[in-house]
Amino acid sequence: MLTIGIAGGTGSGKTTVVQKISEHFKRGEVVVVPQDSYYKDNSDIPLLEDRQKINFDHPNAIDFDLLIEQLDELQHGRTVKQPVYSYLTCTRSATETVTVHPADIILVEGILIFTDARLRSMLDILVYVDADPDDRLVRVISRDIIERGRDVGKVIERYERVLKPMHLQFIEPTKRYADLILPQGGHNQVGIDMLIATIENHLKNS
């Protein structure tokens, strides 16, 4: 079994890297543990407007205890019930979960996963997906409007007010923990191929 952490700024191409790795291996060989499923439940805050003001790019927004607990279960060959988080309501579902089975390759993906020392210690390979800030902004605007139903003006304002400073304070500094840095994000096929070769070599020799 191999556990790989894939971190990097919002819109850097982490999801693309995860998809390319997953597509390379057979069905059932790879399981993905997305940080975004582990945002803390905010249902105790009654107004959606107030929940939308939460800083989701701060480490305190993540339920690392639950993420670490479920990753440990997967690493020990046990199935988990992964929480489901809604960006539209900014709450965790009280009735819905996703059943996640253990696999030979576990991909933990998210902007803040390297900020927690406990989680870092559980990762065999730490990958930081890097990208130009302008490219990341374009992806953030596209994603938040299409997938999360947000207004373009609010997306840009949030980027300047929250995403950019949080990236500089919490995310960018974690690059120093990376075993591998992938410039150009998901477009770096050479780097992705090198990572896949490393994974294959590890599984072959384990």
TrEMBL record:
Transmembrane segments: none
Location (main, coarse): cytoplasm
GO molecular function: ATP binding; uridine kinase activity
Alphabetic keyword roster: ATP-binding, Cytoplasm, Kinase, Nucleotide-binding, Transferase
GO cellular component annotations of the record: cytoplasm
Domain of life assignment: Bacteria
Signal peptide (UniProt feature, chain positions): none
Gene3D superfamilies: P-loop containing nucleotide triphosphate hydrolases
Pathway linked to the protein: Pyrimidine metabolism; CTP biosynthesis via salvage pathway; CTP from cytidine: step 1/3; Pyrimidine metabolism; UMP biosynthesis via salvage pathway; UMP from uridine: step 1/1
InterPro entries: P-loop_NTPase, PRK/URK, Uridine_kinase-like
Domain Phosphoribulokinase/uridine kinase: 4-190
E.C. designation(s): 2.7.1.48
The keyword Nucleotide-binding is annotated on this UniProt entry: yes
Subcellular location: Cytoplasm
Reactions catalysed: cytidine + ATP = CMP + ADP + H(+); uridine + ATP = UMP + ADP + H(+)
Family the UniProt entry places it in: Belongs to the uridine kinase family.
Name of the protein: Uridine kinase
Source organism (scientific name): Candidatus Coprenecus avistercoris
This protein's encoding gene: udk
